[in-house]
Design goal:
Elements (H helix, E strand, L loop, with lengths): L6 H31 L4 H6 L12 H7 L2 H33 L6 H13 L4 H10 L17 H14 L2 H9 L4 H12 L1 H16 L3 H6 L8 H21 L4 H33 L2 H7 L1
Helix pairs in contact: 3-13, 4-7, 4-10, 4-12, 7-14, 10-13, 12-13
């Protein structure tokens, strides 16, 4: 039986939808502005005439960016770091979270204490650099992957998910049917954990794609630099040219620089924006919220 909606219910819905619409606009408009500013005459952007629709569309900024061969090299490097690093991260995190969720693991509390301890106390930058150096990973692609192979925070989320969503009775029933621990993990636990796997993939992939600090520390060769560093170098070089152009009285260089600034934001954010809609439904289900609460 469907209950009749009162005036208070309608008013509540109107307030909710209005508030949500305002929040969506506050989040989306800055991104939309950057997108339109990257193809709009910079004079209109400076004068504040660009509000909703681009005018005097120009693709000079993107043409200059995409003409740089280093852009494609950095893109391929970042793609390699993201795919390889995320695969390693997910395998280690899921296996560690599952093992730590098992109540029959001897010394489980000791292992959890050691992991959580690293969240509050760390050696710092210099010991980390010396460790990477002693492992002969300086100026190698593995320096971007191995040092951050596991996030303790993500391990805790995965462990909590397994504890709250896979009952012990299911394990006991499988063992009575002759199922081994490895088979139970692969055939039962992993299929049930696909939502949290998707969430962890998103976390790690975004982190690898936006990573730049490790490259500044561990990588020396330009051929191994990720996209973020390449874009940073292009921005710095053009700022130097821009300053020289201002001294020479040139305004075209300054306009081109502004277009490239907005274009760099779009290029660096585009892969993440493409990935997120495919995994967003798992956030809607409340997977992450339920794991953290547990």
């Amino acid at each position: 039986m469907k209950l009749a909606r009162t005036r208070a219910d309608l008013l509540f819905d109107i307030c909710n939808y209005t508030l949500i619409s305002i929040l969506v606009l506050l989040v989306l408009y800055p991104l939309y502005f950057v997108l339109t500013a990257s193809v709009t005459d910079p004079d209109l952007v400076y004068s504040g005439k660009l509000l909703f629709f681009p005018e005097h569309i120009t693709w000079d900024g993107y043409k200059r960016l995409l003409a740089e061969s280093s852009i494609w090299m950095g893109f391929s490097n970042s793609l390699w770091y993201t795919l390889t690093g995320t695969a390693i991260n997910v395998v280690l995190t899921i296996t560690a979270g599952y093992v730590l969720s098992r109540s029959d693991l001897i010394g489980r509390n000791v292992f959890m204490f050691l992991l959580v301890f690293t969240m509050f106390f760390g050696g710092g930058l210099i010991p980390s650099y010396l460790l990477v150096k002693e492992l002969h990973m300086l100026d190698t692609t593995w320096a971007m992957i191995i040092p951050n192979a596991v996030s303790v925070f993500n391990v805790i989320i995965v462990r909590t998910f397994f504890q709250t969503n896979i009952p012990g009775e299911l394990l006991e029933s499988a063992q009575m049917d002759g199922c081994s621990n490895l088979k139970f993990f692969w055939k039962i636990a992993i299929p049930l954990a696909l939502p949290i796997v998707a969430v962890i993939v998103l976390f790690y992939a975004v982190g690898h794609w936006n990573s730049y600090f490790q490259a500044l520390i561990y990588l020396k060769s330009n051929a191994k630099q990720p996209l973020q560093i390449i874009l940073r170098n292009i921005l710095i070089m053009n700022e130097g040219s821009d300053m020289q152009g201002m001294l020479d009285g040139s305004q075209e260089q300054q306009k081109r620089m502004e277009l490239m600034k907005y274009g760099i934001i779009i290029i660096s954010s585009l892969p993440v924006m493409i990935l997120y809609p495919f995994l967003q439904r798992y956030f809607v289900k409340g997977t992450l919220v339920g794991s953290v609460k547990g």
